[in-house]
Specification:
alpha/beta; 7-stranded parallel sheet
């Protein structure tokens, strides 16, 4: 598919205050994006990010589970032609007894329903601005589930499935949908994951390349590359191997 010119882009990044979101804002700025709306629940956490490019980075108060916040974001960012749904939460589980229904509901509200709500709200904005691009940050666990993230994995499965539906439903308005699938990344969310992690900056660069190349799916690091390649060859065997090995993702 045709790629997107970042230098003419106006981008909204949710969950921009840390991790992959913060790295994406920095990478978009370096790539020459015209304007970047950096969204977070607490805009104070964005001060240094905004200070790095006050003329191009605009802070936006946004809780993706709050309908009023989303409506206000649409009013503020009516010129967006790339929406990056990055905001997310995760909880770890050690065994069945540690599974929390409350935590699971919160994960689904933020990761899935938040992505859905933002996509629905900004689809008309993207259409008005020529179609544009919708980027949903998934995970390698969109394909393979790990018991240590028993309730998080289903939310990323759901985001991937939703993205495939949105790809069809938004095709008529010219909106491209890109799903991004990282493995373990060196962020606060993965701080307790005992394994080698890729940097948020390296993930952001892969996303920038995928945007430019017109990709519809991208893995962002060697572990994700390998796991998804194995999943494509044999999903059942790849899942068995993932659970059998002592790894978290």
């Amino acid at each position: 598919m045709t790629g997107t010119d970042i230098k003419s882009a106006v981008v909204m990044v949710t969950g921009a205050n840390r991790g992959i979101g913060r790295a994406l804002v920095g990478a978009l700025r370096q790539a020459g994006a015209k304007r970047i709306y950096a969204a977070a629940r607490n805009t104070d956490s964005l001060r240094d990010l905004v200070a790095s490019a006050k003329d191009r980075i605009v802070p936006v108060k946004l809780d993706v589970t709050n309908a009023a916040d989303i409506a206000a974001a649409v009013r503020t960012a009516g010129d967006v032609n790339i929406l990056i749904n990055n905001a997310g939460v995760a909880s770890m589980t050690s065994d069945l007894a540690s599974v929390s229904l409350q935590a699971a509901r919160n994960e689904m509200e933020v990761n899935y329903f938040g992505t859905l709500a933002m996509s629905l709200a900004f689809a008309p904005v993207l259409a008005t601005n020529g179609g544009g691009l919708l980027v949903n940050i998934g995970s390698v666990v969109s394909f393979l589930s790990f018991p240590s993230f028993a309730t998080y994995c289903p939310t990323k499965h759901a985001v991937y499935s939703l993205s495939q539906s949105l790809r069809v439903m938004l095709a008529g308005q010219g909106t491209r949908v890109l799903t991004v699938h990282p493995g373990p990344i060196d962020t606060d969310m993965a701080k307790d994951v005992p394994m080698e992690k890729a940097s948020p900056e390296s993930v952001a660069q892969r996303v920038i390349s995928a945007i430019r190349n017109g990709d519809e799916l991208v893995t962002t690091d060697p572990m994700a590359d390998n796991l998804v390649a194995e999943w494509r060859k044999d999903p059942i065997e790849a899942q068995r191997a993932a659970v059998a090995e002592p790894m978290e993702a």
